[in-house]
Amino acid sequence: MTSSAHALGGVLAVESDPGGGFVAPGIEEFYPEPLAQFSLLGVDFEITRITVILWVATIAMIAFLVAAVRKPQIVPGKLQYVGEAGYSLVRDGIARDVIGPKGLPFAPFLVSLFFFILANNLMAIIPFAQISPMSRFAFPLVLAAICWVIYIWVGIREQGAGRYFKDILFLPGVPKFMYILVTPIEILQTFVVRPFTLAVRLFANMFAGHMLLVVFALGAVYLFNVGNYSVIFAPVSALMAIVMTFFELLVIFLQAYVFTVLMGTYLNGSVEPAH
Amino acid sequence: MTNLAAESPNPLIPPIGEIIIGLIAFGILFFVVAKFVAPRFEQVFRARREAIEGGIERAEAMQAEAKAALERYQAQLAEARTEAAQIRDQARAEGQQILEELRAQAQEESARIVARGEEQLASSRQQVVNELRGQIGRLAVDLAGRVVGESLEDQARRTGTVDRFLDQLDGMAAGASPDGRGATGSSVYVQGDR
């Protein structure tokens, strides 16, 4: 049983109890019952349906990518063409154009980032899954942490630790007395705000998107079943659920792209010394 | 609802287990992309670029070849033209020469023919003169005989009067001929002598 199904049960219960009113789905949406629970080396693992969705999305994306490059040809087939379009979007549009001439070695990482987020985000509107693992804060946080480590590591490798940290602490081209203000902001920005915003932006978008879809879908069901004049508003709610699904599709692509582009700009800052 | 909902957990506090699961999932995807997908795509891009550049190079080579061939043909054509002009000039010169040769030959021939004609004319005139001389003599003797009433033939033959007279005439003609204006009576013969 999914948590949405529990919520649906709650909504349908209104038939037997007309005075109950609409029970809006809450945070429990994102805490489905664990399918399995075990402890390994002192860490508790909970396998929920969201974990399963994460694996399904990841394996599906790997299968798609492998199928796309299984028999690479100069004149691409349909599958290879789609794979190439995605790969080129990140490789040329982000690794080459955003990071710069030194960006191409980061293409595989950025491509993985983009496709991983995209696959997991798409689960938000795939029937029977209909929840993105990215609406669980742990997953965006993992990606943001990886990005954080990489862009600091690349900055130290490319510019040297002294130069890299000096440029962050004392931004070149700023009047000396302004360092009182600029230095704390820069430190906070580079080491705290950047990864945190990366993670929260993705998480919050998918979290809110899911809540919107659930509210409109359950609202439609509730209005159909409430048994009074409200039933005329049910199609509006159902229509909104459909419209929001398309909107969610836009958000899915946009967030995957935004995450990758931002990582590109951070890497650009690490690769090239500040001016 | 579940007991989790009752506790109302903070969605911003991630469970450690999930973080590890996320790391593994992303790690596997990254491994596949870095080791397998990206190199293949790069290989395709490289092959495609080479194919396009190779095509351009081939086209350029073909164009250069075509240009060279055109130049060669044009050079050959110019050569052929000058050669033709040369041949024409030569032919014209040769024709001129042949024409002149022929003209000279013809002139020579005509001169020869004229000379032979003159020769024949002279010999036949001599023949005619000789014949006429005999006949005129006979005729004159005859006529004189008739006038006189007797035959003078024998006497004339004996004395050779007529021949003497004729020889006189001839002598007059021969005397007149060197200045081109002979006596009226012998004008025919004078012309023939020329």
Describe this structure in words.
Chain A: Its main location: membrane. Chain A: It holds the Pfam family ATP-synt_A. Chain A: The chain crosses the membrane at residues 47-69, 106-131, 137-156, 202-224, 231-258. Chain A: It is a multi-pass membrane protein. Chain A: GO terms for molecular function: proton-transporting ATP synthase activity, rotational mechanism. The complex is a heterodimer of chains A (275) and B (194). Chain A has helices at 3-12, 49-68, 78-99, 107-122, 138-159, 161-169, 179-225, 234-271; strands at residues 36-40, 43-47. With 275 residues, chain A is mainly alpha-helical. Chain A has one domain. Chain A has a two-stranded antiparallel ribbon with strand order 1-2. In chain A, helix 5 (138-159) packs antiparallel against helix 7. With 194 residues, chain B is an all-alpha fold. Chain B has one domain (15-159). Chains A and B meet through helix 1, strand 2, helix 2, helix 3 and helix 4 of A and helix 2 of B.
Secondary structure layout plus pairing:
The complex is a heterodimer of chains A (275) and B (194).
Chain A lengths: L2 H10 L23 E5 L2 E5 L1 H20 L9 H22 L7 H16 L15 H22 L1 H9 L9 H47 L8 H38 L4
Antiparallel strand pairs in A: 1-2
Helix pairs in contact in A: 1-7, 2-3, 2-4, 3-4, 3-8, 4-8, 5-6, 5-7, 5-8, 7-8
Chain B lengths: L2 H5 L8 H133 L4 H7 L1 H16 L10 H7 L1
Organism (chain B): Geodermatophilus obscurus
Protein name (chain B): ATP synthase subunit b
Subcellular location (chain B): Cell membrane
Order of helices and strands of chain B: HHHHH
Q: What general outline of chain A do the C-alpha atoms trace?
A: globular
Runs of chain A in which pLDDT lies below 50 for 5 or more consecutive residues are none
- Measured distance between first and last alpha carbons of chain B: 161 Å
- Classify the secondary structure makeup of chain B into a structural class: mainly alpha
The shape of chain B is rod-shaped
How would a textbook summarize the main sheet of chain A? 2 strands, antiparallel
Oligomerization status of the protein chains = heterodimer
Number of strands of chain A: 2
Structural class designation of chain A:
mainly alpha
Poorly predicted ranges of chain B: 1-6, 180-194
**Tally of structural domains of chain A:** 1
Query: Care to count the β-strands of chain B?
Result: 0
Strand order of the largest sheet of chain A: 1-2
Keywords (chain B): ATP synthesis, Cell membrane, CF(0), Coiled coil, Hydrogen ion transport, Ion transport, Membrane, Transmembrane, Transmembrane helix, Transport
GO molecular function (chain B): proton-transporting ATP synthase activity, rotational mechanism; proton-transporting ATPase activity, rotational mechanism
Biased composition (Polar residues) (chain B): 184-194
Protein name (chain B): ATP synthase subunit b
